[in-house]
Amino acid sequence: xxxxxxxxxxxxxxxxxxxxxxxxxxxxxxxxxxxxxxxxxxxxxxxxxxxxxxxxxxxxxxxxxxxxxxxxxxxxxxxxxxxxxxxxxxxxxxxxxxxxxxxxxxxxxxxxxxxxxxxxxxxxxxxxxxxxxxxxxxxxxxxxxxxxxxxxxxxxxx
Length: 158
Known about the structure:
The protein has a domain at 17-106: Jelly Rolls. The strands form two sheets. It has a five-stranded antiparallel beta sheet with strand order 1-2-8-3-6. It is built from two helices and eight strands; from the N terminus they run βαβββββββα. It is elongated and about 55 Å long. It is an alpha+beta fold and 158 residues long.
């Protein structure tokens, strides 16, 4: 069995309303949907979460996200993180569909969440000695990875 599950969606023209990706790509630790709200249409109710924060990533179109009584304009390229307790709903502008991806996850105290970490979940395990096929044999990349490996070792000593 492969170590991944893949699907494909036409993000220029996805199906209307919500496309849940849980089963399509075998998700077990986060929620992920692609949503297309037809022009002038929107959620029919407000919602919030007990624990899950959601990030909305606008792929195309314009609209508003209504959060805790405030209308916030959104457009292509916008990312907005909405905290669990905040009540929210989205609506497409009258003249364009609104296409966005929504990713949701629950905070875990399992990870250190160090302020110095660029990642929220800092459980990555780099294998600096194992180059991807497109860089095999590249002395420049081997030197770069050697430097990165040494820098990482030095950081852990501190």
